Every structure is written in C-alpha cells, then in structure tokens.
C-alpha cells in the first residue's frame, strides 16, 4: 500500500512529501534529510531570489543523491492602492513604536512585472539545475511555462483547496495535485474559490477530489503521523504532504520560538488571519493577530502587506518575542514532536505498517 503510482513516478520509497514551507524553514539539511529517509524533500522557494534558489539547489545536491523538489509561488496581479498602503502604515505604527522601530513614511512596493520576472528566472534555474519535481502554490502557471518544464521532463505538482481547483490543475497540465484541507497551517493555496469556500476539511476533500481527477492526489492538512498517512491512503490519496510535523524537526530552520509555540499549543489556539501578509493563513493566536483582528479585511493584498510587516516579524525574531511573529501551524499541534527527520520518518512508517497489518 505504501508503494503506488505516485512513489514510482517520483522515484521515492515512501509516499511522504515534506511541505515546501517558505521563509527559511526548509533548510538544505531538512530537504536532504527527508529525501535521504525515503520521502520527498521540497525547497520552499517562494521568497528566494533566483540566485538564492540556485545556491540552495546546489547545496542540497551535495547532501543527497535522491530526488528532491522545489515549490514556486505563482505571481498574481495585486492592487497597490495608495490609501490602503497608507492606512496599513498607520495601523502598524503603534506596533513599530512598541518595538522601537522607526516609523516608515514611504515603502518600496515592487511592481507585478518585477515579481513575474523573478518567477520566470526561478523557472529557468529549475530547468538549468535539472530539479526533477516542481510544485506550485497560489495558482497554476501559464501554458508556456508548463510546456517548457515538461519538455525538460520535470514532474509538475499543483495545489488545490476544492475539487474545482483540483480539476483545473489537471486540465492545465499538472501531473499530480496536492489537495489542501482547511486543517493545514500557513497560507491557503486557493486560487479560484474564495477563502470561505476553500475551507473544506481534508477527510471530505480527498475522496471527492479522487473521484473527479485521474492524476494522483496528495493529501495535506493536519497530517502528523502514520494514522494520518493510512487514513489518507484509504480515502484514495496516493501520498501525503506534511508541513507542521517537519517544522518542529531538529533540521528545520524555523525559529526556536516558533517551534516551542507549536510544541506547547492546543488545537483550539489556531486561527486564520490575513493581517501578516494580506493572504489568509492559519497560525497560533498571538498579540498581533488579536490586535489586528478588526482591521485585517482592510489591509493590502499579498505581497504588499507581507512586505509592510516584514521588519516587525524580523525584529521580533531577533528579540525572541512571539507577540508579533507569524507562528504558522496546522490544527494538530498536540501531535508535534521535537525530533530528527530520520526519527519522524521511521515513526510514521512503523505506525503505518502496523495499521496496514491490522486492517488487512
């Protein structure tokens, strides 16, 4: 049951993918560790420059000879309304004062064209460095990009939060699709359906997606152990993608405060917010989320708000202050452990095999 069409296509031993978490969490050691343990390690390249992307790919090649992949954010048009940016500055002013940060009167908001150009440069790096697997979040790239990657025999994985989005991924040429349940931590991968419409629980989403697409479905959202793996496989998924479970591993680049927050959190402390980045994401409630709750619908869209809060998040990281950090997490924090990647992978497979024997 642990070997199927997906594992054969990806050339991996176990149907386990480490979620490509952007922002420094997916260190080269984490990615290589997962691949060396028989899963698929993934670089979260959403915030990397093309040069940084190339450097990390080359670093990982020195640490593993097994397949690994990379995830790119699909650029979306965004609105840079001057009034919205000005209002966001004002909302953040009191927080900056609390952190002894100078008030920023002006801010260099990048043009969409420059973000798109950077994305295309990253695509070029993926091809040049012969990365075998490339996944996408926040949408599906253009037909031209898909065709170019496929000409170089790169396996493409899309992200969907509803059946409609899963069908669209298959229609546009993705080889596999990650279905992200509402339990998932971090940013939502919806790109057709709205935030509320995309909040489908994973156990409901898997079988419905499987019944409507012919490409392999990969389950994501709240999965932390062998039980989650086997439940997903029983519902028709061919593999799982786990983020929070790997985030608290030793090799993860997540801040110690972030890891500790998850390891000591309960499931009812999780909430959705768009206050940090302008895009809905799930994380642990803290002072920033509560302070911004009544204003979060007014903040600028991603990536503008993400840039406006960047210095606040960075400063809090340096000060070991969890109050204004984005503490992304899925809904199963009680199952998180502080262990090595190798230990986590062994535990998942051992538990899954025991369940397989007992059921079959």
Structural features, described:
The chain is of the alpha/beta class. The protein has one domain (5-359): TIM Barrel (Alpha-Beta Barrel). The chain is built from 15 helices and eleven strands. The longest helix has 19 residues, at 341-359.
Features:
alpha/beta, TIM Barrel, three-stranded antiparallel beta sheet, globular
Secondary structure: elements and pairs:
Blueprint (H helix, E strand, L loop, with lengths): L4 H6 L5 E3 L9 H9 L4 E4 L5 H14 L4 E6 L8 H17 L13 H17 L4 E5 L5 H9 L3 E6 L2 H9 L4 E5 L5 E2 L14 H9 L6 E4 L5 H9 L4 E4 L1 H4 L8 H8 L6 E4 L7 E4 L2 H6 L11 H5 L1 H9 L22 H19 L1
Parallel strand pairs: 1-9, 2-3, 3-4, 4-5, 5-6, 6-8, 8-9
Antiparallel strand pairs: 7-11, 10-11
The count of strands amounts to 11
The CATH architecture name reads: Alpha-Beta Barrel
Head-to-tail CA distance between termini: 10 Å
Residue share in helix: 40-55%
What is the name of the CATH superfamily? Answer: Aldolase class I
Overall tally of structural domains: 1
- What radius of gyration results from the CA coordinates? 20 Å
The overall pLDDT, averaged over residues, is 94
Give helix and strand order, one letter per element, not per position.
HEHEHEHHEHEHEEHEHEHHEEHHHH
Poorly predicted runs: none
> What structural class do the secondary elements suggest?
alpha/beta
Shape: globular
Assembly level: single chain
- Classify the beta-strand content into a percent band: 5-15%
Q: How can the largest sheet be summarized?
A: 8 strands, parallel
The CATH first-level class comes to: Alpha Beta
Q: Would you give the CATH topology? A: TIM Barrel
In order across it, which strands form the biggest sheet? 1-9-8-6-5-4-3-2
Q: What is the tally of helical segments?
A: 15
């Amino acid at each position: 049951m642990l070997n199927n069409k997906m594992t054969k296509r990806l050339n991996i031993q176990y149907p386990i993918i480490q979620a490509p978490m952007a922002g420094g969490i997916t260190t080269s050691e984490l990615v290589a560790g997962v691949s060396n343990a028989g899963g698929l390690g993934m670089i979260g390249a959403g915030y990397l420059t093309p040069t940084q992307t190339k450097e990390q790919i080359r670093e990982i090649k020195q640490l593993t000879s097994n397949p690994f992949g990379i995830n790119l954010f699909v650029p979306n048009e965004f609105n840079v309304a001057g009034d919205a940016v000005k209002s966001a500055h004002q909302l953040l002013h009191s927080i900056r004062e609390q952190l002894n940060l100078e008030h920023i009167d002006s801010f260099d908001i990048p043009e969409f064209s420059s973000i798109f150009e950077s994305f295309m440069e990253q695509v070029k790096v993926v091809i040049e460095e012969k990365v075998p697997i490339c996944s996408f979040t926040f949408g599906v790239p253009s037909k031209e990009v898909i065709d170019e990657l496929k000409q170089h025999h790169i396996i493409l994985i899309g992200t969907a939060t509803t059946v409609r989005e899963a069908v669209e991924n298959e229609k546009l040429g993705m080889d596999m699709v990650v279905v992200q349940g509402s339990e998932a931590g971090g940013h939502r991968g919806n790109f057709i359906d709205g935030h509320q419409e995309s909040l489908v629980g994973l156990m409901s989403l898997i079988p419905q997606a499987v019944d409507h697409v012919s490409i392999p479905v990969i389950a994501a959202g709240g999965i932390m152990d062998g039980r989650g793996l086997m439940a997903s496989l029983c519902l028709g998924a061919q593999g799982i993608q786990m983020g929070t479970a790997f985030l608290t591993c030793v090799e993860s680049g997540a801040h110690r405060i972030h890891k500790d927050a998850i390891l000591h959190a309960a499931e009812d402390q999780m909430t959705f917010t768009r206050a940090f980045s302008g895009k809905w994401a799930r994380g642990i409630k803290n002072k920033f989320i509560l302070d911004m709750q009544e204003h979060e619908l007014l903040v600028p869209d991603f990536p503008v708000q993400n840039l406006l809060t960047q210095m606040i998040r960075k400063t809090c990281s340096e000060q070991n202050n969890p109050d204004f950090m984005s503490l992304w997490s899925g809904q199963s924090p009680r199952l998180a452990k502080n262990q090595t990647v190798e230990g986590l992978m062994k535990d998942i497979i051992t538990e899954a095999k025991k369940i397989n024997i007992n059921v079959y």
